[in-house]
Design a protein that fits this description.
By secondary structure, the protein is an alpha+beta fold. The chain has seven helices and six strands, in the order αααββββββαααα. Strands 4-1-5-6 form a four-stranded antiparallel beta sheet, covered by helices on one side. Strands 2-3 form a two-stranded antiparallel sheet. Helix 1 packs across helix 2 and helix 4 runs antiparallel to helix 5. The radius of gyration is 26 Å and the shape is flat. The termini are far apart. The model has no long low-confidence stretch (mean pLDDT about 85).
Length: about 250
Amino acid sequence: MALQDRHRWMAANVAAAFNMLDRVNYVESTLGEYNNLKKLNDFLEGKSKHKHIFVYYQRPDVPNDQGELVDAKGDAKLMITTGEHEDVRIKNRAVYFLRNVPDSKPVKADIACDGDLLFGEMAASPLESLNTGLMDVFRPVIVQSASLDWASCETDQATEFKSAFEKFTTELSQGIQSLSGGIDLRIPEATDADMRSLSYNDIAKDHPELVTSYERLLEEWCVQIEKYLEQTLETQQKETGDPGPR
């Protein structure tokens, strides 16, 4: 299956988004690989149940000894996903293409660019991007502007909308702050003992050094958590005057 004008337009946008204009041939060859091209064609022809498709440029995920997903060794790769079945986290910028036609209508592959297929970029933290747009662009216009013309919208409705909008942006900002904050607790060191096959009594009997190690780790966690809670309450009191729960 050869690339058509639409595929090349998509490849050019992907290359531009990831600062790879000097590697457009690489992007085209990656999109032209059998599995990738089949995903794209199913998407364009409306055979996929999704109206969107994402392209990432990052290193794949691999599980470490603790079962956590970490970056694999090697160079970053282009990955095409709908975000449903593939276990792929967005870790950097992502490119998306969006079908702008009815589900049953195919997007013509022999036409490079038209309104049937939309293109955009998404940051690794879409909530933060949304919050920035709402707080810096829309909120000053909607909430703080006294000269905004609400046309046929009644005063009570406009007031209710502004109040709801301001509440939503405030809660979104606070929610993002709580997600981006927090503390990093040290992970227990790997051990040769198979903890899953041993009972608690066997661990205490045969591996007393592990018990001691975990006791010290738990004490360390408690100290970290107590300091974090104290700092959080102090910050909250300075910003709002509310001492918070006791």
